[in-house]
Design brief:
By secondary structure, the protein is α+β, with helices and mostly antiparallel strands. The protein contains eleven helices and eight strands.
Amino acid sequence: MADIKAADVAKLRKVTGAGMMDCKKALQEADGDFDTAIQVIRKKGQAIANKRADREASEGNVQAKVEGNFGAMISLNCETDFVAKNDDFVKFATSILDLAIAKKPADLEALKKLDMGGKSVNDTIVEKSGTIGEKLELAYYEFITAEKVQAYNHFGNNLATLVGFSKADVEEQVAKDVAMQIAAMSPVAVDETDVPADVIAMERKIGREKAQQEGKPENIVDRIAEGMVKKFLKEATLLNQDFTKDSKKTVGQYIKEHDKDLRVTGFKRFSVKQN
């Protein structure tokens, strides 16, 4: 068996991110051959990923970041809160987000295929599964392009938002307030015109069924259903929601107070606890 030097172990650890003992064992198994040892580490990662494929990756790290007029958000999921809060795991999630910001992939699958230090993001995640000993999953990636994009990262990194505006000179506090509103109140659309027709139809159906179950007269069932739809649209659309910092006004009114021509062009919200 080849003599395994500490410098080789340290080098393998730097390349793969695996633990010192795992690196030493890999080099011993590879009889000192560095490239073979890397493959040993990778196979271990794949084995662990396969073994834990049926586990639920319900914890994780959600991060959003903006560069220029482009904002991106990712969620790197794991099995336990302990790993989710680990500094190395957080840094790994950040490195994936930085790559997304730099390369601007079109969707999640395109991000997984990007090169990350000589291998794909997906293969790197599989290797990390071996290093950490838990199932890891890149569960979410979305982006927004707008004249102004604001990001909000909630404390603990389990929730983040992105919001786009129609003008670049948005007051910083206004942009932050809207991003935090989205985090707190989880709207489904910017306003009623953005809500899919099938969602409204479902709310109307639910309203009718509820009214009928309560024994309401048939001639007012439709009116009650429309009232429920109206209530849903106020509570679930960003611009019609009560502003969390001042419930006497809507978010739309708050924005118009600062700039009557300013529009919200879109938003993204993700929490590891909701999926």
